[in-house]
C-alpha cells in the first residue's frame, strides 16, 4: 500500500474529532469578535511606542502579533499554535532582518497561548529555556488580568536579551528601523 495516498478513514473525521473541531472553531470565532475590546487603540499605541523605544537600545527588531483566533484551515487540521506563530514570523518578515536578530512575540487569545519566535542569530545565543521563562512571566501577568503589564515586561526582557547579544553599534539615529513598531492584530480570517 502506498503510504502517501490518503486512506478513506483519513478523509472522514470521527464524530468526537468533528465535535472537538467545531467547538474549537466556535471558541476561535468568539475570540476574533472580542479582539478589539481586549486591545483598545490606546493600548496598541503605547505598545508600539515601547517597541520603538526598545529598538533604540539595541540592534535587533521586535514585532508583537496578537490574534483572536486561528484561520479555519489551522483549526480543521488541528494545527498547533507554534506552527501559526512561525508562519506569522515569516509573513511579517521578522526573519528578514539584516543581522537575523528579529523576535516575534505572538499571542493567540482563543487558546491563551504565548509563543516567542527568535531569528537564527538570537536563537543561537539564547537557550530555549530562557524564552519559556519569559513566556511564563507573561502568562502569570495575563492570569492576574494585567495584560499590558505582561506585554510590557516581556518587551523589557526581550530588549535586555537583545542589548546583551546585539548592542547598538554607533548611535540610535543611524540605526535603520527594518520593521514596523505597531503591534499587528489578526483575526482568523487575516491580519490588519
From TrEMBL:
InterPro entries attached to this UniProt entry: TPM_dom
Pfam families xrefs: TPM_phosphatase
Domain called TPM: residue spans: 41-160
Protein known as: TLP18.3, Psb32 and MOLO-1 founding protein of phosphatase
UniProt source species: Oryzisolibacter propanilivorax
Organism lineage: Bacteria, Pseudomonadati, Pseudomonadota, Betaproteobacteria, Burkholderiales
Amino acid at each position: 500500500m502506498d503510504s502517501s495516498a490518503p486512506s478513506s478513514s483519513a478523509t472522514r473525521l470521527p464524530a468526537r474529532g468533528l465535535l472537538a473541531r467545531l467547538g474549537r472553531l466556535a471558541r476561535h470565532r468568539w475570540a476574533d469578535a472580542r479582539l478589539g475590546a481586549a486591545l483598545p487603540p490606546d493600548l496598541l499605541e503605547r505598545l508600539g511606542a515601547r517597541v520603538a523605544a526598545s529598538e533604540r537600545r539595541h540592534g535587533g527588531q521586535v514585532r508583537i502579533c496578537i490574534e483572536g483566533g486561528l484561520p479555519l484551515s489551522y483549526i480543521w487540521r488541528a494545527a498547533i499554535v507554534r506552527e501559526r506563530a512561525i508562519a506569522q514570523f515569516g509573513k511579517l518578515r521578522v526573519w528578514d532582518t539584516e543581522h537575523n536578530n528579529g523576535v516575534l512575540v505572538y499571542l493567540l487569545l482563543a487558546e491563551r497561548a504565548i509563543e516567542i519566535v527568535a531569528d537564527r542569530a538570537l536563537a543561537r545565543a539564547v537557550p530555549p529555556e530562557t524564552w519559556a521563562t519569559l513566556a511564563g512571566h507573561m502568562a502569570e501577568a495575563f492570569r492576574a488580568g494585567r495584560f499590558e503589564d505582561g506585554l510590557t515586561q516581556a518587551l523589557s526582557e526581550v530588549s535586555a536579551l537583545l542589548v546583551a547579544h546585539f548592542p547598538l553599534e554607533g548611535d540610535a539615529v543611524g540605526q535603520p528601523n527594518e520593521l514596523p513598531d505597531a503591534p499587528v492584530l489578526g483575526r482568523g480570517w487575516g491580519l490588519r
